Amino acid sequence: MKKFILCLLFFAFLFNVSAQFDANYDESKVPEFKLPDPLKTFNGQKIRNYKKWESKRRPELLNFFTENMFGEVPGDLEIASVDILEESNNALNGKAVRKQVDLVFKNRGKTLDFTILIYLPKTEERVPLFVGYNFYGNHTITEDVEVIISEAWANNNPSFGIINNQLTEQSRGVRTNRWCVDKIIEAGFGLAVIYYGEVDPDKDDFSDGIHPLLYIDDQQQPAADEWGAIGAWSWGLSRAMDYFEQDEAIDESRVVVFGHSRLGKTALWAGASDERFAGVISNESGCGGAALSKRRFGETLWRINNRFPHWFCKNFRNYRKNEEALPVDQHELIALIAPRPVYIASAEEDRWSDPKGEFLGALYATPVYELYGKKGIEQTEMPAVNYPIQNTVAYHIRTGEHDVTEFDWEQYIKWASEFIK
């Protein structure tokens, strides 16, 4: 009987802890918090111009996010070889050039490769480019039957015909709605996509993917301040940029990194840590992305670190249930992209990602952009649904759920056409 009572008490304790950190969708329950000033150093020094930002404040913020959130890449790993797997000058009903490029990496007797699917408009000029990851393989973003199906591990999704963690023909074209390839090409942009599972499988297991290539001796897990999955995916985007610098058809000075959800977090970190990207689009990135952590609205640091412990470095777990101890917040991650253009987007029904927190992330990053004479978010109230704010710092909230839609891409193309010079 005593054991039974103790068991009941234990489960009651677990229930209460879980309830305490359930997703909050009530603005009246958002705790009071003081947002750190992006223009004040950790020791209290005021930053008054962009030179001081670049020499003092930006380095310390970048270092903090590296050591305590996304993790450091523990070494250099260059492209060992570039293999053109397939190319055509008659793709998308004759409107585009298609390339499928395999980047190969080797170290410590191990090999990893990932494939970039590239569509480019037919032109003699070097073209600007959107680059981003997809969730279920390059073949899912188009009905183009020539796109190679990845053999990498994938999360099961029976509705897409994905079982036993294997991608199949059944999933070809199931995510065409998220990419609007024709609109991108018609606007004069190229598109490059990568299946994120080829760089690092999205599971709490660091025995595969890119991590083992940089382990030391008998290491089995990244150290507490070393890269998690988001750090690895960001690394992969930078290696894609290494390739773009070699491709004479691509204008490497006008490459915009795009991401949705967890890959929206990835896009922000890639843009913050690699200044070669000309702009960043973060679509509904939520907690750990554009949304302010200290609001504790929707997904929280406690939930994200427990459900997806592999996304961030282990040091980030020090702040779960302890957001008030964070000396930074996500507006400062966005600010690290300055003065390059950045677009933050939300969806009205995606409360888990905290649309207001995402808007505030963009708003409170604006003072850093103003140091450069760039226009950010000037209004303190969220814009009306489906009425974008398009400045160097851009934002919109649209109708609908957690997704990428044609409306989103129409705004991104319009914005990039104006601000990616």
Please tell me about this protein's structure.
- It is a single chain.
- The chain folds into two domains: 28-70 and 278-421, Rossmann fold (3-Layer(aba) Sandwich), CATH 3.40.50.1820; 77-256, no CATH class.
- It is α/β, with parallel strands linked by helices and 421 residues long.
- The protein is 29% helix and 18% strand.
- It is globular.
- The chain has helices at 2-20, 50-70, 181-186, 196-199, 229-244, 262-273, 301-307, 330-335, 355-371, 406-419; strands spanning 81-91, 96-107, 110-121, 127-134, 190-195, 250-260, 279-283, 342-347, 393-398.
- The protein has a nine-stranded mixed beta sheet with strand order 1-2-3-5-4-6-7-8-9, sandwiched between helices.
- Helix 5 (229-244) packs across helix 6.
- Mean pLDDT is 95; it is low at 6-20.
- The protein contains ten helices and nine strands.
- InterPro entries: AB_hydrolase_fold, GCE-like_dom.
- Residues 1-19 form the signal peptide.
- Residues 226-373 form the 4-O-methyl-glucuronoyl methylesterase-like domain.
Notable features of this structure?
421 residues; alpha/beta; Rossmann fold; 2 domains; 29% helix; signal; serine esterase; hydrolase; Acetyl xylan esterase
Under the CATH scheme, the architecture of the largest domain is 3-Layer(aba) Sandwich
Q: Which term fits the overall shape?
A: globular
First CA to last CA: what distance? 73 Å
Briefly note the CATH topology name of the largest domain. Rossmann fold
List the secondary-structure elements in sequence, H or E.
HHEEEEHEHHEHEHHEHEH
| Biggest sheet strand line-up | 1-2-3-5-4-6-7-8-9
Fraction of residues in β-strands: 15-25%
In angstroms, what is the radius of gyration?
Answer: 21 Å
Instruction: Please give the CATH class of the largest domain.
Output: Alpha Beta
Total DSSP E strands: 9
Major β-sheet profile: 9 strands, mixed
**Structural category:** alpha/beta
Name the CATH homologous superfamily of the largest domain: Alpha/Beta hydrolase fold, catalytic domain
**Total domains:** 2
Total helices: the number is 10
Helix content: 25-40%
GO molecular function, one term: carboxylic ester hydrolase activity
Keywords: Hydrolase, Serine esterase, Signal
Domain 4-O-methyl-glucuronoyl methylesterase-like: 226-373
Protein name: Acetyl xylan esterase
